[in-house]
């Protein structure tokens, strides 16, 4: 009788543990984001939104960075703006997609934002890209109708950067339990 297969690792399991990013992780984040962004090219063509922000630049902004694994195979960057938590970037190595790493990072970001006293976390994303708004809906985010001032400012920045030319952008929010 063949040996039973071990269960698939659960998000945040020892195979891809989520932790606070350290200084040694920062150099990996920009290139990782670039590889993750490349999955948009078959849908959008040339992206035109510039090079990814470096990990060092991300770490210098108010908020926090969490990574999965060592070296990182995914990261989430949460900004703290006007007293609110905003998920600025989620990136996972494309070859490791659909294995729960993105979900684990989102859940860890929500837990950390709640631990820091936030009642909600928001994000901006494409409404119709399967791994964008539909994914975030599955993990508890809902589309926002009335934008907070910081969300309206973020959307205006996205419009200026040309992100809207690739499709409808939405602001989503998830209520947090503290």
TrEMBL record:
Classification via Gene3D superfamilies: 3.40.630.30
Region spans: Disordered: 1-26
Keyword check for Ubl conjugation: no
Highest taxon listed in the record's lineage: Bacteria
Keywords: Acyltransferase, Transferase
Name of the protein in question: GNAT family N-acetyltransferase
Keyword Secreted appears in the UniProt entry: no
Classification via PANTHER family: PEPTIDYL-LYSINE N-ACETYLTRANSFERASE YJAB
Compositionally skewed regions (Pro residues) per UniProt: 1-14
Domain N-acetyltransferase: 27-177
Signal peptide coordinates: none
